[in-house]
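Researcher: Going back to the complex we discussed earlier. I've cleaned up the inputs and rechecked each line, so this should be the final set. Can you rerun the prediction on the complete assembly and write out the structure?
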Amino acid sequence: MTDHNLSWLQRLSASGVRVLLIGLLAALLTSGAWLYLARNDGKRFVPATVVAAGQTYRLGTASFGLDRLYVTETVDGWPPVNQATYVAAELRADLTGLAVDQSCLFFLQAGEYSFASVPSYASLEPPLSDRCESGATGTIRVSFEVPSRLLDKVDGLILIIDEPVLMAGRIS
Amino acid sequence: MPAVQNAVSELGSELRLLVGETASTLGRLWMPLLGLMLLGWSANEGSILLAAEIVPLWPWGVVLVLAIGMVAQLATILALLRLVSGHLGVPGMLATTSMGPDAEDQRDTGLLQLLTTSLLPFLAIYAAFGFVRDYAARVTILSGYRRGSPELLGALNPLQSPTTMTWMLVILVIGYLFKKLIDPWVARSKHPLLLGLVQVVVEASLAFVVLLGGFRIYEAIDLWQSERAFWGWIDQAAQWLGTLLPFDLPAAIAMAWAVLVRQVGPFLFDGVGRPLLWLAMAGLVFGPRALSLAELWQLGEPTGEITTRRERVLAKLRQDTERARGVRLIALKTQRFFFGGVDATILGAWQSLRLVLRAGWPFLGAFVIAFTVVDFSAKQLDLWVTRLLGGQPIRFWIGVYPFLDLLHLVVMMGITWVLLAVAYARALSIFAASTADVEPVLVTRRPALTASLRAVGTKASTVAVITGLVLVAASAVPTKLGDEVKSAQVLTSVGINDQRVLIDKPRVAKSVQLFGKSLTTAGVFVVVPAVVHTPGPVGGLVQAQLISGQNTYLPVDSALAPTASPGFVVLAEIVFEVDPADVNADARVRFTPYGENAVLHGYQEVAELWLGLSPDRVDDALATTEIAASQRMAK
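Model: Rerun complete. Updated structure for the full complex:
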């Protein structure tokens, strides 16, 4: 066997500790990267943007602002189930730039929990609406049924058009 | 019977040698071995992580990432095999022969050259045993779970659109030409190692394009041929033949085929073929010249002269090539340009496999047994660690999977690779022992006896039976887990991952009033009041099934139990239509959580709640019962 051929084998044999340390370092880096990318596993929504309370969220020429979050006793005349409370959210919305095929989804965030909006069958007088309509301007009102024990954890409204946006706010 | 005893004794000696040398090698070289395996693991997991991020942006990029990860992993494996073979003294053994200086040539055994010669056989074995499919599945699952991205294999399906087919062909042609054209420049470049690695990565990428996309074409052809009228003619011929015979020929053929394809084939392929193929792969690290030398030992030919029949054939072919003119010369040169590299890798692997198969029955039996024990231990370790961790939701398994893989890829595969290197060194030593001028490195305490043909046959049969028994025993032990089943009686709340379930005493009735309609049955209805609670922020649908004996029943109106969103509890009555014979003490309701993801689940908790029924409940069944409306509250 030539000296040159032995060299990389000999180097490998002679530097066992160094190889082990390099391997450990590589494994640690890979583990760290994996755990970092897994940090949001299991979360229903990971907001791409957080809009501070009172601020306006702009998407192209459309804009949304969370006016208020408040407790309401009924939705469509019906009370909530036992040990639950209705929370309503009102947003001022300018949807003149919203594409026709774009729609909005609303969720209420309370700490780790998120709640889908409750469908309402009552007709709302403009400028009130319960959905996003391209070209419309006014107030969108959506309601949520929330366990009463979580009311103090409500921290905002999640709006999803392209990606989740958290509009921070507290119940007033 | 002395022949049988001798065979068992030789088998035992070989096994002791393999196990002992493997253990002592691991003990002496554990630091560099562990370091190399950790590097290989990092390359594998890192490439999966990166590929999962790339899938939604550029599916074809996954091929490149996969190729880089695979080449990096292969490099660590080859380095490990060479390290172990050097420790065992194999290069020294080769150097003592008269062909010594030529047997170990840097051109054959440098790391880059080893990568080139080992890559295709390595990938072929990986693909044959499902590793490529498993890799693609992991990337798809991870990417789908975190990015909601489309399925990887669908994006690479050449039959899905003309664009995909065109891209695949373009990549194959350009990649192949690039690899061939760069060949002469590698040695002349200032950075031959870097350029050589690029070449190897390109080759690996081409192989993966074929593996990940090409199998769709194979599937389509297979489907097309299976729908031909030809198979109908075969069926008709078999049925006509069946009328001439006293037994059902088509049924006999079907049963024989099923046994061959589903039991014997996989048993032989996985139990015997897999270890031998891996062993042949390990032999490639010694280089083609060393393999030729070993072949000469095996044939008992002197190693100083090139006198084997193959060398004479090769010399004649060389002469023919030199005399070729015109079109034949162009054809030969074209063949050498396009397929010369493939010849070297495929022939090398084939040569290595042939050598292994001639190393003798005791060696082969001992190696297969040792490999099977290591493989079995790896599967059982994986199973027991999973059981120890317990049933968990999918987010846990997605996060922890690389660390479970660490046990397999680093610990168990590390032991396997060392065993392979020791086994191949032993195979070479068996051949070297037959020549006078070479000192073999690994010898058993009990030398093989010169035996008659009949004794050889007895030896082969004995080894085959013992090895077969070990394989059968290993395959009989379960290696797959179902789910973690938590059992309880009525009115006992049970947690299943992020949710809790509970049932009340069931009612048995001949008809039910459901949504204002009356339903009747020839059997009976079992009505189970159930409560599902989702206390935390994560929870999804829950499937309910009534199980009794071998029978499973779904609810009459839906497969799903009451749905409780996070922070809420729901009480509802689930109705099952059941055969009266299944109303007995074995009847229970199984609740399976879908969890946060309706498609993915790992080893998870399921609840089996015993209904406390007995056969006399059928006689006492209610004529009719009304199904209560579901109730919901926050909790």
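Model: Worth noting: The domain at 484-634 of chain B is CATH 2.60.40.1240 (Immunoglobulin-like).
Researcher: Good, that matches what I expected from the previous run.
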